[in-house]
# Entry
Amino acid sequence: MGALQGRLSAASRGAVLARHALLALPLAFVAGALLVPLGLMFVWSFWERAGFWIRPAFTLASYTEFFAGVRLSVLEWSLVVAAGVTVLGLVLAYPIAYFLALRVRRDLARNVLLLFTVPFLVNYIIRTFSWVYLLSRTGPVNRALIAAGLAGRPVDWLLFSDFAVVVGLIGSYMPFMIYPLWAALDGLDRRLVEASWLLGASPGITFLSVTLPLSMPGVFAAAIFGFVGSFGESAVPIILGGVGYQLMGNTITSALDVLNYPLAAAMSSVVVAAMLAFLLAWYLAFDLRAVLGKIARWRF
Amino acid sequence: MGHDRTGVTRREFLRRAAAGGAGLAAAGGGAGRWAPAWAAKGAVTLADVGVGDPGGDWSKFSGPTGWDVKLVAIGNAPSTVLNVLIAGGGTQIYDIVNIVGGMQKPLVENNLIEAIDTARLPNWGKDTYIREFLSPGKPGFDFIGYTGKVYGVPTVLQGDSFAFLPEKTGPLDSYGAYFDPRWKGYVALEDNFTTTGQKTALYLQKNKLASIKDPANMTPAEIKVVIDFLIEKKKAGQFRVIWSSFEQAVNLITSREVYVIDCWEPMVFAAKKKGVNAVYAAPLEGYLLWTMGAYVVKNPRRSKEQEKAAYELLDFMLGGWYGAKITLSRGYMTNPAAAPYARNNPREFRPAEAEEVAAIDANVRKKFQFGGTWQNRWPTHVEVYESEWARFKAA
# Structure
């Protein structure tokens, strides 16, 4: 009996060891491919320029330059745009996900969800350029507006404007937002909704007090996709923005163009810090484990 | 360059393998007839921004020299070039880097390129454009030289201005068109402080609207004047967009989204091919002049044979066939041998093509004779240029 227990215990220790070894691989990858570069970036942000390269030092010059210059306004504007795109994206994506999860047949929902992946078969830059054609002064949208008598002349603000950037960002990131929302809503326990009805709650009250709170983990995940993607975007502002429209990705690239590595590193560090703060706030508000649990249940 | 355990470099290994292959092919009788004559040697690796490729046909070089050309793409932004050479191990990979010139200072100071021995280039002495526009003491020398030494071989030359749609604007002959209220909201600029910024400075200087000593190398105070001027116009709604890619600029012209656009001449050629009557302006203030510079990448481990082949390729790029091919395909002036070569070799260039080469050559030569300002890719206060340009964009 004792020998058997010993063998079982050894087998159990072996399994634990194997699990740890298996876990070590992705951990090593994350550390090597993500944490080390991030750490280097953070350290370099305090270094100083030496000719065309950088040398070790501890100076806040790059942070001072960033916070005292016009680039801070780019950060502020990037946060505003990313937040706006996230909210608009949720407003558009939630009803789509809601109907796909709760109002249509499952096979039809899967087909429609598949359709949302079709745009990703086209190159991202070409997809963005297609908006230029659609929204230009001589493009189909303006022609339709004029033909319908809704505009006497081409509407300028459709393209190379805040509007165009928001359209481009929503077009790019909203499909990513639909999937976690659908996953959250699809996994919802329908009996809770039925219970709400049986207790006399109206559809609106049921949605606000049952469906929406239970789908918040999906909202959280969708918001992450929308916000992080929009915040770091650089191609859409260049192609669809107006005169010198910039988000943080663009201004970091611009600093790199003149080999100002410490400034680029400082700006990137601030961006990462802002993202971490955002994630922490959402984590505290909605509990990240709930999202992960939902996704895990949905996947397996 | 990595060594394997036998002490043979990778390049040498490839060369030996190629030589072995060629030997086997020759021994194989019939099959050997199809092995290219230059298969026994190696390849010169040329990193290029997309201008220096003669349609993939390097046979005119490979045939006589026995060396092939391995063409690889490289970005033109200074940071890209430096990053590829410094961090990306480019010095071990590339023999020649063909980019827009004027990058000698950062490249030399980072020990990335080597001075060119022009005596090893027979075509150098025959190139009257080099003597006329790029010799030491002339402003153009800064595009290929540094501290009195030559570092770049000028493979193409061009003078930039702007394009307009005459059906909308009538004839235009001044950079003032960028700022003319008649075209408010119909002007596009390039997202580049060394082109748009410098052309604006040239306009302000020539029209005595600002005190700017040298538009090619402005002081921080002068840059601020230029950017303040641009911001004022931007806030008045003068500009529609600033573009950052070739296709984007061509699309702006062909869709008639803008009537006046700060751009490169090949974009006008592209627009014309799409049936749009765009005109490349001859501004009274002059042109933004520039050349491509083919730099020899510094690699102490490069063999003498490899170096000799690199020099042979540089010389080939100063020759008539290559020049005519590039002029025809890109619309840029290359070297004085290009037009005569195209004219005298009707089996390689049809008469219409030869005429086109001659016309482009004459047109660009006129621009250089007229003058303007030489683009400065790496001005003394480059960080100020960049931060002020960021201010313009954020305004």
Notes: The interface with chain B takes residues 51-53, 65, 69-71, 73-74, 129, 132-133, 136-139, 156, 159-160, 238-239, 241-246, 251, 254-260 of chain A (CB under 8 Å). The longest strand of chain A covers residues 48-50. Residues 144 and 150 of chain A are 9 Å apart (CA to CA).
